[in-house]
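Feature request disguised as a bug report, sorry. It would help if multi-protein outputs had a clear separator. Right now it looks like this:
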Amino acid sequence: MANDESTQPDGGDAAPAPAPAPAAASAPQATAPPTPAEALSTAHQVEELADQLSACADGIHQRVMRDIRRHKGGDVPQQEQDAARALLDAEIELRQRADRLYADAAACIVSALGQPQAHLVQLTLDAADKIRRITHIGDGITLVARLLGLAAAAGTGQPLAILAALGRLQAQLDVIAVDNAPPAPPAPAATA
């Protein structure tokens, strides 16, 4: 087909040549894919999010097991057991949602999310890191809930739902950063 465009019949007018040019110029605009920076704009990017969510699920599992092993076979307080069960249930759900994203990647493509894919990936990487380091278990449960919300929103393919979920995830990461920040050093005493 590429050769069809380069060969013109003998005796062709110059006037018909400009007519296809505007049509060709408008066609790429209508069919041009979103810029590569647009998050979730390709099936590969949706699968990349699913990979990140699966990695977060792995981190949840490792964190819960580390917390359980910390008791060295002794009794685990009921509150910690409840938190561990909640996190393990969330891990399973996060894996299921990631699996759905893999299966439905083409249907979950979003055009014009207005967020770069790198930002989306960085948020999930930050979440995975926070899961490993978190000191307040309640923050971990809420963080996992925000990841589940992102996975659910991504599965809809609706930009507003995804943006809202990203905002909630970012807000929770900010809360965790404050909760887990080392205490500020005392201010130097003023000398008179």
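(second protein starts here, but nothing in the output says so)
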Amino acid sequence: MQMWKTSLMAGAVAAALVGWGPKGPSTAAGVEDKVYAVTPPAMTVKAGIVTAELTEMKVTERVEKGSDKIDTPAKLSAKLKLVNSSPDQTVRLISGKMVYIDMQGKPIKVEEARTEPVIRFTSVSSSQLDPGQDASQSIDVDFPAAALKSKTLKEIRLDLVYAPTAYRQETAKVAVSIGAGGTEPIAAVTK
């Protein structure tokens, strides 16, 4: 079985975080959500036999009112839909990762105390796709603070690791006959 690692470039995210978006509602006394607009907020990219659609993309961080002290670091949230466009291969999704690319084409690292932006496909329905099938899930991954600065983020890349396998449908025939050699019943059942 050959394993494929496919990179899907969410290209036009270059202008992703150019400024503050609208502020979200207060979540607690003294704390509010600051939402950064991701432009475009949705995109579809294809690599190999997998098509990925990211929608409702936004970056949110929680800050204390007045002081702008960070209460909860920035997270990228979106809905991810993956489609197996192969006519004859099943795809077993292994993992995914968001990679944030700066203006020089280098990855922007997430701070050490935070979690790498890994996407896990945990349910059976979202980890294996037969030809033509799709699976959707919400993602909520850490976003690097450095990428929030104006003109820092060029693009967001979605790295997927999946294993394609041949999809085959077979027919088996079993020779049978009714009765011991004729059409007589073996036993009569009376009700």
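Even a blank line would do. Unrelated, but nice: Residues 8-24 have pLDDT under 50 and may be disordered.
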